[in-house]
Amino acid sequence: MPALKPTDFSGRITWLGVVTSEDRAALIAEAREAMDLRFAGIAGSVHGGLTRASCSRVTAQHPRGTPIGNERQVSILSAEEMAEIAARMGLEALDPARLGASIVIEGIPDLSHLPPSSRLQAPSGAMLVVDMQNRPCILPARSIDTVHPGYGRAFKPAANGRRGVTAWVQREGRIALGDRLTLHVPDQRVWAHLDAARRG
Questions:
Q1: What is the Cβ-side half-sphere exposure of residue 142, based on CA atoms within 13 angstroms?
Q2: 85 three-state secondary structure
Q3: Cα–Cα distance for residue pair 146/151, rounded to 1 Å
Q4: CA separation for the pair 19, 39 (Å, rounded)
Q5: Cα first-last separation, the chain
Q6: Domains of the chain by residue range
Q7: Residues in the chain with pLDDT < 50?
Q8: With contact defined as beta carbons under 8 Å apart, do 43 and 133 qualify?
Q9: How far apart are CA 149 and CA 24, in angstroms?
């Protein structure tokens, strides 16, 4: 019996991009029509690599800067959640390039809360493994301010719980605009002790 179950949910890719600049404050992704997913992530991406330096998200586990496996190779956002963020900010729309997005998809509800270890598989066979929900940070806020002065400060509260997920490449392959990514989920119940295990 497979431990991963295909579902009837799939998301259509509406946008692809790669962050290539080392200037994190300038955070802007270059739009692409297609891209190759490799075990080290997306070619040319500042988020690529088999390893990365640990950041503030994992200081409870590792001293900052510790080399760890790179589970944050790809940033996946929901078109529907982006529209909700924009509305909460008082904007008509948000440019995914200014959010540092790798992939934007439409059609999977509540994308930001997919179970960790869910998979998204492309027609080419390429497969992404969801690590966990991506938390809002100040870098997109600064980038948004360059085109919508004064609106950047509203990004973090508006994006809370809607920032998408990070993922890593399990199987190499090509993805392109219009492709449908099929959702596969772990065949297990929610851990009954989750609430008790959370601290703070």
A1: 10
A2: helix
A3: 9
A4: 17
A5: 38
A6: 4-45+72-188
A7: none
A8: no
A9: 19
Q: Are 28 and 143 in contact (CB under 8 A)?
A: yes
Q: Which fold has domain 4-45+72-188?
A: M1 Pyruvate Kinase; Domain 3 (2.40.33)
Extract the tokens encoding 160. 């809370």
Q: From residue 175, give the alpha-carbon distance in Å to each of 66, 149, 154, 178.
A: 31, 34, 32, 9
Residue 79 token pair: 């078109």
Structure tokens at 98: 């200014």
Residue pLDDT, tens place only, 49-98: 999 999 888 999 999 999 999 999 999 999 999 999 999 999 999 999 99
Residue 58 · residue 52 · CB < 8 Å: no
For the chain, list the strands marked E by DSSP.
Answer: 4-18, 30-32, 34-38, 41-42, 51-53, 67-69, 74-78, 103-106, 119-121, 127-133, 165-171, 173-176, 180-186
The reported pLDDT for the residue numbered 200 is 56
Query: In the structure encoding, which two tokens stand for residue 89, read together?
Result: 């900010």
